[in-house]
């Protein structure tokens, strides 16, 4: 399969706007949406053109204050250990002296204490922070309107909810494959299901194998067969 280039889509525009704001204003941007909508792809594209940004793709085992702080410090080449207070202090000192945008992907894994300490780092260092994840991260930041979360939630500068891709987005993303309108409409239908664009890419990978076997242009029959195979229907 040809490597899909990052296409100019509404999702990319929304995320670049939110990330650029956080970097320029030294503020916090919250980006959230269902899995498979291209959030991580857009963030990585931004980092590729802004190499000074600190990009962390978080794992569940790193959800604590210590876990996320150690990842940030490791990224900037400081393999420091110690108490939560010491780690937060080290990051704050570094960012105060050398402001850099911090992007936390898969931020739904963060504990409330980790979120609160990232807010504190942002407050003290005045360095931009981006939190990106599935809708759980929004729920945690909002706290169902409870007073305990008011400071955390109100500190967010921009909130962007990433929604399902448009047909135009699908046309832009899959333009290298010369699919006709019927094929693009089919992929758009798949993109609106669970798994989003990621689901489309996996179906396309399988469809390309069918195309290679049959030595004919990629078409909707290949896509439908690939979908059935992916979902155990054949």
What do these coordinates show?
By secondary structure, the chain is α/β, with parallel strands linked by helices. The protein has two domains: 153 residues, Rossmann fold (3-Layer(aba) Sandwich); 64 residues. It is built from eleven helices and five strands; from the N terminus they run αβαβααβαβααβαααα. Strand 3, helix 5 and strand 4 form a beta-alpha-beta unit. The protein is elongated and about 60 Å long. The model has no long low-confidence stretch (mean pLDDT 89).
Provide a quick synopsis of the model.
The chain has 234 residues and is of the alpha/beta class. 54% of the residues lie in helices and 11% in strands. A five-stranded parallel sheet has the order 2-3-4-1-5, sandwiched between helices.
- Percent range of helical residues: 40-55%
Helical run tally: 11
Q: Which structural category do the helix and sheet elements fall into? A: alpha/beta
- What's the SSE pattern? HEHEHHEHEHHEHHHH
Note the gap between the termini. Answer: 23 Å
Question: Could you give the order of strands across the largest sheet?
Answer: 2-3-4-1-5
Rg from C-alpha positions? 20 Å
| CATH superfamily caption of the largest domain | P-loop containing nucleotide triphosphate hydrolases
Q: Care to count the β-strands? A: 5
Give the class-level CATH name of the largest domain: Alpha Beta
Give the overall form: elongated
Please name the CATH architecture of the largest domain. 3-Layer(aba) Sandwich
Characterize the biggest β-sheet: 5 strands, parallel
Q: Detail the poorly predicted runs.
A: none
- Overall tally of domains: 2
Mean of residue pLDDT values: 89
The portion of residues forming beta strands comes to 5-15%
Per CATH, what is the topology of the largest domain? Answer: Rossmann fold
């Amino acid at each position: 399969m040809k490597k899909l280039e990052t296409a100019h889509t509404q999702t990319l525009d929304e995320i670049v706007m939110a990330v650029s704001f956080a970097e320029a204003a030294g503020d916090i941007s919250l980006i959230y949406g269902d899995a498979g909508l291209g959030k991580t792809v857009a963030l990585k594209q931004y980092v590729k053109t802004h190499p000074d940004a600190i990009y962390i793709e978080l794992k569940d085992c790193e959800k604590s204050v210590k876990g996320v702080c150690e990842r940030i410090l490791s990224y900037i080449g400081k393999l420091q250990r110690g108490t939560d207070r010491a780690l937060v202090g080290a990051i704050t000192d570094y960012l105060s002296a050398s402001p850099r945008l911090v992007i936390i992907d898969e931020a739904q894994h963060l504990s409330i204490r980790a979120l609160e300490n990232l807010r504190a780092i942002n407050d003290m260092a005045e360095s931009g922070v981006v939190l990106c994840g599935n809708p759980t991260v929004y729920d945690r930041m909002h706290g169902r309107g409870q007073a305990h979360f008011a400071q955390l939630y109100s500190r967010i500068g921009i909130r962007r909810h990433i929604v399902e891709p448009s047909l135009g987005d699908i046309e832009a993303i899959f333009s290298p494959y010369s699919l006709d309108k019927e094929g693009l409409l089919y992929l758009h239908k798949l993109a609106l299901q669970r798994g989003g664009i990621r689901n489309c890419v996996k179906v396309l990978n399988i469809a390309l194998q069918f195309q290679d076997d049959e030595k004919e242009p990629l078409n909707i029959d290949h896509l439908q067969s690939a979908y059935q195979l992916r979902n155990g229907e054949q």
